[in-house]
Amino acid sequence: MNWLVGLISGFLGGLLGGLLGVGGGIIMIPLMTWLAKVTQHQAHGTSLVAIAFTASVAAATYLFQGNADWMRAALVAVSAIFTARLGALFAHSLPERRLRRAFGCLIAFASLMLIFKSYVPGPGGPLSPWASAVIFLLIGCATGFLSGMMGVGGGVVMVPLMVMLAGMGQHLAQGTSLLAMVPISISGAFTHYRLGNVRKDIAWGLAAGALAGGFLGAVSAGALPDAYLRVIFAAVGIWMALRYLRS
Fold this sequence. Notes:
Elements: H1 2-20, H2 25-35, H3 40-64, H4 70-93, H5 96-115, H6 129-150, H7 155-165, H8 170-194, H9 200-221, H10 226-246
């Protein structure tokens, strides 16, 4: 039965991930804790396994459409793969209740950032190569830690920051986020696996569903305007955050 929960959770998470440029953990983690009754720590670790598959297939689709930046994704990934391990170790040390609350706060914060994106001053013009490199390395440090800690791909933070700080379009930010997410999620998943936070009985179904959902979501995203994507991203994020904080 757990493999079926994993398959459904992975498909829905992958669909959201491919559509919005995130890993899909904000869907997969709640479904695993509610339906399969896994612990919060196990849900975070197992989610990262599936995110590696979601990000791979979705990033390839975005890249084929010309909506991903290899260089910027590499800058994010270089710093993030190290901090993802630190985030996973930190999550393992937290009580489950505090980890759940932190997860809800993260989703709410990222969603609000995207809602108010239009009212936040952008970079004000083209960034110099050095300034751009520093910004993307810092984005990688922050999102890597949060990815490892929260069991998400980091897109809930990467996408708004890329849009606001680097002036990227929504589609390009989503594709670049997914591309960087592949090594980030692998690093975090490996650390969680060594800590015993990966449920193998769910992970295989989760990965299979994530592959199918990620491809479908990425293909669908190309047909939607930027504004629609921001509204969907924010609405889903706030709903999930409220569910977590109320519980």
